[in-house]
Amino acid sequence: MKGIILLSGLLAFSGASFAETAEEKGLAIAVEADKRDQGWGDQATISKMILRNSQGAESTREIRGKALEVEGDGDKSLTIFDTPADVKGTAFLSFTHTLDADEQWLYLPALKRVKRISSSNKSGPFMGSEFAYEDISSQEVAKYKYRFIKDDKFNGRDVFVIERIPQYVKSGYTKQITWLDKEMYQPLKIEFYDRKKSLLKTLTQHDYKKHVNKFWRPGRLEMVNHQTGKSTTLIWKSYKFNNGFSSRDFDRNSLKRAR
Amino acid sequence: MKELEESLGPWVLKYRWLIIVLTLFLVFGAASGGRFLVFKADYRVFFSADNPQLQAFDNLEKTYSHNDNVLFVLSPKDGNVFTRETLKVIETLTEKSWQIPYSTRVDSISNFQHTYAEGDDLIVEDLVSDAGNLSNADLEKIKNIAINEPLLKQRLVSPKGHVTSVSALITLPNIDQTKEVPEVMNHARNLAEEIRVLAPNIDVRVSGMVPMNNAFAESAQGDMQTLVPISFAVMFIMLLFLLKSFSTTFGTILVIFLSIMTGMGLGGYIGFPLTGPSVSSMTIILTVAIANSVHVLTTLLHGMRMGKEKNNAIIETLRINLQPVFLASATTMIGFLTMNFSDVPPFQHLGNFVAMGVVASFILSVTFLPALVSVLPVRVKVQEEESEPAMVKLGDFVVSKQKPLMYGMGALILVLVMFVSKNELNDVFVHYFDETIEFRQDSDYVDKNLTGLYIVDYSLVSSEPGGISAPEYLNEVESFANWYRQQPETRHVNIYTEVIKRLNKNMHGDDKSWMKIPEERNLAAQYLLMYEMSLPYGLDLNNQINIDKSALRMTVSIKTMSSNEILSLEKRAAKWITDNAKHIKEANGSGPTVMFANIGQRNINSMLIGTTLAMVLISAILIIAFRSVKTGLVSMVPNLVPAAMGFGLWGIFVGEVGLGLSVVTTMTLGIVVDDTVHFLSKYLRAKREYGYTAENAVRYAFTHVGRALLTTSIVLVAGFMVLAQSHFALNSGMGLLTAIIITFALLADFFFLPPLLMKLEKK
Predict the structure, then answer these.
(1) Is residue A16 part of a domain?
(2) A105: domain CATH number?
């Protein structure tokens, strides 16, 4: 017994010299999560967003998405709005970049023109919802600095709790805390902290399913804004992989064709 | 009753130590409720939960966003906002304002989302960035954009470009508002100070809704810290002068102190908050409670000066005073309790605090006070029969000049009453705070130099989800906004149509002829979608567009003006909507400005019921007490006339009746009735017991109660004049008018009631 105490004392004493730091461990987990999600190639999704104000009044938006994996940078995505009716056919093309502003184009069917949105903002609300564009665009390792906080349990599942600090200067957040499932390496919960480091929103991801035997995707996202009392539910109705998309499906011309 | 009156004195003397100990025990038990008393830093406390204007506004805030703000107002001493130095400061302040606790949005000319076209690109960016490196041409360009931008001009920048502001929107969690508002305010004040140090050539002022909420709490705190000690000091001096005895003065002060502690402590248990009006209850309890002790002690000391032994004098004073002191307390309590009819919770709290304090003071005055006096050394000079030469003369004067007095007073009353109608119901809620209060000074400055602090918020509802993009709806909204802009009271109209017009222009290569509402609904909806995708964190449109995009919020800033002007403006706006709007389904103005504009009338309406009930109850009590319907009814003349005279005088010199004065009639009724009770009880005793004629009974009443009435009136006037010194207009106006009415009540009791009684006797 004494020997064990002595041994653990020694370990604690020398621990700092050989164990990885919390930052290193956090990064390692993020890299692992990224690695496990590599190689999905492309995907097509159908989803529905339900917006709720603090009184519980609801409004629905339906969108379809296509995405293409890009090695070494953010992914390319194309989003098509189906409802509300007055924006039907509006299509949004985005090239996500890790630290620079994204490149974004919008095709407006009423104007029959493609417009480039020149904005360095990624943090505004997406279609009036509680999701910011930066919350749902592709998550690249280099977007954040990481720090492992602890191992924990969340809803009965083993998780890593990791703090991540956005590296993009115009991010709306000062930090995020993620509860990352140890089996799936996917987040179960993320807390978003605003510029004054107060808790702004909480995202929980539900109904995970494994697709093409490899990639975990959530079926439902719940985002609650604690400061305004508004919330948004994002339901992924379907995922489809191996669509054979190429970068030609993600350029300005493809925008006009998309509907 | 008679038995009780006679047995009370011996009982008190027998159990004096028990009474003293038990009283202190009970009072401290009650007073410990004081730990629940908190200063409420929220203007909403003035509105009952079922107030329709409050409900409308709550609804609007839930649909869009809360709009309590902190407004930093910057005035560069060189008179030009558009310099590198000042713009740099604005950038800094904008950045730092995000750090204010509970801030959810910051608007300034620097982070204004300027949009323009560049080929096929839509550029959305901060109007000012990196101000230190701007060229002179850039500065000129920024100035041109800012002072011509309808969303900025007269909201965040003055048309001359000499004053600008940074507005931080605060969304309080409302978990513990007594902490949250001061927390925000402290941060804002420190930030303002930081800017003053950073840029000594810029004047920084702080205004907005959060500072207003804070001013409500701070002015109440200020009143408590200054007025309450002053009243105690004034009363102490007056008591020493009146009673000419230190130990009884000490006893009275103790009774007052314990009454206040009991009233406030019990209120604390119930959960009444401290607000401007309810804090004044301390001064009012103090003032009203004093009369009970004075009546008990005057008779006691008088007896001792006549050579009575102290304990006998105690028994005697309780025998004589139990009934009148009880009656006076009961009527005062009724007057204050009927303030529960008020539509304004702080006045209900005030009424209940005081009523409980008055009950405590009655019980203490007839138990604790005599018990205490019996154990304290009381020294008086034994004198020959005390004579009241002044009062004898006054009695003779009133009897001999009864006719001229009656007609003279009658004429004075009539003239004053005629001027009652000169009073206009009017409230300027920013003026609730006098010019010594920082919030008032800064707000006056904002009103004069930048924008309007008064805000009318509209939710303009279209007919269907997404309806805000329909051109017919947008055009009507545009016309409505333009109508408002043409009104002389309007300073600024914040409305989304300005955004969609500008986007339309941007999408047509910045061609000015496209600065109009898009002609097609889909186009407008898609522009909006695009714009929303381009906005940064915190600067979205969710604060002015509801979630299913069926309604727009229009925010109209108007100059500081009276409730009547606001109501008339709102009425004109409602008429415009009825006459012109087919596609706007609903448009109700709401917000604190509208709420305060309605509160005066609502409160007067509700207080009318309260006042009537008080009148009926008090008359009934007097009829029973005097055992005469006629006397009871006659007594109502000197009870009601003073309020009418007071409001008449107010009509001549002030002419504006606000919220604070709407409770005065009810409040004074219970107080002034005491004088009448004392005068009439002596008058009736002289007639019934001694068979005096009316004339002699009047003389008797003057000599026996004239001095007491004079002194209690002086005490009351002094107490309410202290209240009149409040920096919170609701209290100062209430204090002043109450003091005036009490003075008139004394005049009526001395010079109008006796001639009236003598006249009635002759019939």
Answers:
(1) no
(2) 2.50.20.10
**Angle separating helix axes B664-690 and B629-653, nearest 10 degrees:** 140
Q: Is A11 a domain residue?
A: no
pLDDT grade, residue B363 (50/70/90)?
very high
A219 contacts A205 by C-beta, under 8 angstroms = no
The tally of domains found in chain A comes to 1
Q: What is the DSSP letter of A125?
A: B
Q: Are A258 and A78 in contact (CB under 8 A)?
A: yes
Chain B nearest-CA distance from A56, in A, is: 10
CA atoms within 13 A on the CB side of B221: 13
Residue B586 contacts by C-beta under 8 Å, 6 or more apart in sequence? B459, B460, B461, B551
Per-residue pLDDT tens digits for B367-422: 999 999 999 888 877 766 556 688 889 999 999 998 999 999 999 999 999 998 88
With a CB cutoff of 8 Å and minimum separation 6, the contacts of B153 are B146, B147, B159, B492
Q: Which helix (H) or strand (E) holds B636?
A: helix B629-653
Dist. CA A182–CA A200, nearest whole Å: 26
- Is the CB of A126 inside 8 Å of chain B's CB atoms? yes
Chain B CB contacts of A228 under 8 Å are 65, 104, 171, 542
Q: Which helix (H) or strand (E) holds A106?
A: strand A103-108
- The CA distance from A29 to A186, in Å, is 11
| ipTM of predicted complex | 0.87
Say whether pLDDT at B93 is over 90. yes
**Is A144:A164 a contact under the CB 8 Å cutoff?**
yes
Angle at B96 between CA B91 and CA B101, to 5 degrees: 145
Judge whether A164 lies within some domain.
yes
Q: Is the pLDDT of residue B113 over 80?
A: yes
pLDDT in tens, B288-306: 888 888 888 888 888 888 8
Q: What is the distance between the alpha carbons of residues B52 and B55, in angstroms, rounded to a whole number?
A: 5
Q: Residues B45, B275: contact at Cβ < 8 Å?
A: yes
> B272: which DSSP letter?
P
Beta bridge partners of B116: B123
Within-domain flag for A153: yes
The tokens for B179 are: 């902490």
Q: Which of the 8 DSSP states describes residue B147? A: H
Confidence label for B428 from pLDDT (cuts 50, 70 and 90): confident
| Nearest chain B CA: its distance from A172 CA (Å) | 5
Measure in Å the smallest separation between the Cα of A156 and chain B Cα atoms.
31
Are B62 and A55 inside 8 Å of each other by CB? yes
Residue A119 and residue B124 in contact, taking contact as beta carbons nearer than 8 Å:
yes
> The pTM is what?
0.87
Q: Do B523 and A227 touch (CB under 8 A)?
A: no
Q: Where are the beta strands (DSSP E) in B16-147?
A: 68-76, 103-107, 113-118, 121-126
